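Standup notes
- HV: blocked on the assembly model, inputs below
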Amino acid sequence: MNETYASPPSVEIFHAKNAGEGFFSWVATVDHKRIGILYLLTAFFFFGVGGLEALVMRLQLAKPNNHLLSPDAYDQLFTMHGTTMIFLVVMPTLIGFANYFVPLMIGAKDMAFPRLNAMSYWFFPFGGLLLHFSLLAGGAPSVGWFSYAPLSETPFASSPGVDYWILALFALGIGSISTSINLIATVLALRAPGMSIRRLPLFTWMVFVNSFLLIMALPALNAAIIMLFIDRQLDAHFFMPSHGGSAILWQHFFWTFGHPEVYIMVLPAFGIISEVIPVFSRKPIFGYEFVAGSTVAIALLSFGVWAHHMFAVGLGQPMDIFFAASSMMIAVPTGVKVFNWSATLWGGSIRLTTSMLFAVAFLLQFTLGGLSGITFAVVPVDWQVTDTYYLVAHFHYVLFGGSLFGVFAGIYYWFPKMTGRLLSESVGKVHFWMTVIGFNMAFFVQHFLGLMGMTRRVYTYPDFPGWGLLNMISTVGAFILGLSVLVLVWNIVVSLRRGVLAGDNPWNAWTLEWAASSPPAEHNFDQLPPLHGRRPLWDLAHPENPDEPGAIQEEPEGKKYNKNKVGMMCFIASEAFFFIMLLIAYIFYNFSQHPNTGSEWLDPLKTGVFTFCLLASSFTYWRAEKKLESGNYNGFLVWLAATLVLGGVFLTGQGMEYFELFQKGLRAGTNLFSASFFMVTGLHGLHVLIGLIGLLIVLAMALAGDFKNGKIEAVKTIGLYWHFVDVVWIAVFTTIYLVGVRT
Amino acid sequence: MTTHEFLLSALNWNPFLMAVSVVAIFTYVQSCGWKLSGKTVFFMAGLVSLFLASASPINFLARGILFSAHMLQHLLLVLIVPPLFLLSLPTRRNGGISKGFINWGKHPLIAWFSGVGAMWFWHIPVLCDAAASSQSIHLLQTVSLLILGTLFWRPIVGPRIEERLSPLAGIPYLFTACIACSLLGIWIAFAPISVCPVFMNPTAPPEVMAMIRDQWGLTPAMDQQIGGLLMWVPACLVYLGAILVLLGRFYRRSKHIVPFRPQETEKKND
C-alpha cells in the first residue's frame, strides 16, 4: 500500500501566478476549481433571477382573469425565464461541476487549456448581461425560448429583444463549445497513470459524452440564429413564408439543436446521481458498463428524434410514424439507467443524507417526467396536449425534478470538498422537504390543468371549474419552492462560517477527488493513490478485497493523445457541423423548383482559379511542415509565406466577386439566393481570414525563431485548421458553383 | 387483388438463386464440420436477409414500383447482409495485418467511403432510374452493394481481428457514416423533386397499382418520403446498434472486473 505515484507534471506554467487572495485573483484566475466555483455562483445568481421571474408569473396566474401583468410583460417574462433557466442556470451549473471535478476525478492538475477555460467562463456572464441588457434597450424578447419564426422576425418582434437574445445565445454558445473541447481534451490527454477510459468515474464519463453532444448540437443553433440575425439586420427572408422563406426550417434547425439540448441538460445530472447513489448505498454502481453504454445510446439517439417537437406542424403521416417510433426508443437506454440506479440501491446499506434524499427524489421525479415524455411520442396525444400545461409539467419534471434535483444532490455531496466544511444536514433536510413539497405542488397539478385544456404562454385564463383552485395550489407550491431556495442560501452562508469541518473524505467515497484535501490545493494532489480499479479509495482502504484483484496499473490510453490535436479536431468537428447546417440551408433555398435570380451571375471558371489558389495553399503548407520537420528552417519560411500569399489571393478574389455582385445590385436582402450565397461564402471567408491570422501568428513566431527547438505543435495544429477550411471550400464550391449554378 | 394474393404472386423462386443457396448452405455447414453454433445463426440470418432483399416481393416492388421498397432492398444489401455474413466467418487472430496493393480496400478511409458511397452513388437520379428499370443494371447494383457493404463492415466485424478498428476508433467511423447517411435520407425525405423519377409513373400491372394506391394508400410523394425516412432513421439505428456492440467489446476487454459480491459490502468492513 505504500506504492504511490507522483502526480503528473503541471500542465500550465502560468498557473502559479494566480495564487493569492482578493477580488482580482478571482477575475484573473485560470484555476479550474476557482472557475468552477465562479460558474456555480454566477449560475446561482441567475437562478435567483429566473426564479423571481417564475414567481411573478405564478402570481399573475394565481387566480382567473387576473390583470397583474400585461400580456406583453407576461410574454417577456416566460421568454426570459425559459432562456435564463436553460442557458444561464442548468447548463452553466453542470459545466461548473464538470470544471471543478473532472480534473480532480481523473487525477489531473488542471484542465487541458486553463486560459481557454477562463475565456469560456467569461463568455457566460457576458452572455447573461447581453440578454438582460435588452430590458434597457427597448424590451426583453417576448417570443418564447425557441423564438419561432416568423413571430421572431422584425415585422412581429420589432423591439431589439430578439437581437440581444441572438447575441447572448451566440456568446454563450462560444463559451459552451470551448468548454466542451477543453473537457474532451482533458479527459483524453490528462488522465493519471492507471485511469483508463474503462475506469472513468461515471460523472466524468457522462460529462465526456455530453461534451461531444454539445460540440455537435450547438452549431445547429448557431446556424439558425445567424440566419435569423441576417433576416433581422440585413432584411433577408430566410424564415419569412410571405417572401418565399420557410418558417418550418427554423423549427427543424432549432430542434436539431433543441432535442440534444434536453439531454445536454440532464446527462451530467445523471452523472452526479451515478456518483451519489453508490456512495450512500455503500455499493459499487450496478452495471457500470450499462450505465456508461446507455449514455452513448441516449446521446446518439437524441440526434434522430427532433421532429417529435414538430408533430403539430403537420409533417405528414410517414414522418410522424418514424419519429414516434424513434422517440419511444430513447426510453430504453433511459430505462436501463433507472433500473441500474434502483438495483444499486437494492440491498445496500442506505444512508439517507440530504444528498441521497435529493438523488432518490430525482429517481422518482425524473421517471415521472420521463413517462409523461413517452406519452408525447404518441402522435395523437401530442396533438391533444402540446403547448398545454401538461407539457409545462412534463419538462419541469425532467428539468427541475430531474436536472436541478441532481444539482442539489451534487451541491450537498461536493460542498465539503469545495469548501472544507459540511452543509448542515438538519437545515438540508428542511431544504429538501420544502423543495419536494413545493416542486410537486407547483407542477403535479399542471398535468391536470393541461389535460383540461389550459394552454401555456397565455397570460391569463377564464374561470372554468377547478382551474382557479389548481392554479392557486401551483402558485403556493411555487412560493414554497422559492422559500426553499432561501433555506439553501442560508445553509450555505452559515455552513461556510460555522459548518462542521469535513476532512478529506467525509462520505467515505471512492473516487479520486476525495483523495485531495478539502478544499484541494491549487495543484490538486501532492500524491495520487495507486489506480488499480474504478474505486481507487476503496482499493486503498481494503487491500484484501480490491475491486479488480490482480489488476496491474493499466497505462491510460491517453498516452497517445495530444491535447492540442484533440482540441483542434473537436473544434473542426464542431465547425464541420456548422457548415453542414449552412449548406443544408443553401440547398434548401436554391435547389427547389423556383430558383431565384442571381446565381446566373456567378462565374465558376473565375472562382475556380481562386479555388485552385486556396487548394494550392494547403499543398504549400504541407510542404512547409515537411521542411520544418527536416530542419530546413528557411525552406519552411518560404513555403509558409507562399501559403499566406495564396490565402490572400483567394480572399482578394472573393472580395472582387462580392464587388461585382454589389455592382449588379445584389444585396443580402435581395432574395433567398443572395442571402444564402452571401451567408455561406461570407462565413467561409471569415474562417479563411481567421486561418490567415493564425498563419500570420505562426509566421511571426517562426521569424522570432520559436520553432527551432523542434516544438512544432502550433504549426501542426494551425495546419489542421487551414486544411479544414480548404476542405469546406471544396464542399461550398461544388454546391454553389458546380451543381447549383443555373445557365 | 388483395395484399395476401400479391405477396404470394410476387415471390420469385429463381432456380439459379435457389441452387446457389443450397450449395452455399451445404458448403458452409460442411466446412464447419456439421456443428451448429452462433456463427451458423449469423449465416442463416444473412441468407434469409439476402432472400428477403432479392427474392421476395420487396425485390418485385423495388423494380420500378415502390421507391420505399427499393430503399429497403438497398439497406438490406448494404447494412444487414454483409455484416451478417462477415460475422458467420471464423475469426482469425494470426498473421497480423496483410499489406500490398490487393489489400488497399482494407484502409478504414476507403472502407468508409465504400459504405457511404454505396448509399449516395446509387441515388444519383439517372443511376437510380437505370437500376430500377434495367435487369442487368439492377444485378450490377445488387452485386456492387454487397461488395461495398462488405468493404465497409470489414473494419468492424471482419474475420481478421487484427484488421478490425479498435472500439474507440470504430465509434467515430460508424457515427460519421450515420451522419452521411442521414443527410442523404433527409434530402430524399424532404426533396421537392423526385430522386428516382421512374417510381413516379410505375409500369406495374394495374391491379398491383390499385392495391398500392387504394388499399395501402401510398402516393408517390409519400412513397419517396418513406424511402428517405428509412435511410434516415432505421439505417442510423443499425449504425447505433453496431456502436453499442463496439462498446460492449470495449468493456469486455477489461478482464479484471469481477462482479459485485453482496457478502463483501462495506457493511462488514466498516
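- HV (later): unblocked. The mean pLDDT of chain B is 84. The first helix of chain B runs from residue 3 to 9.
- Next: hand off to the docking folks.
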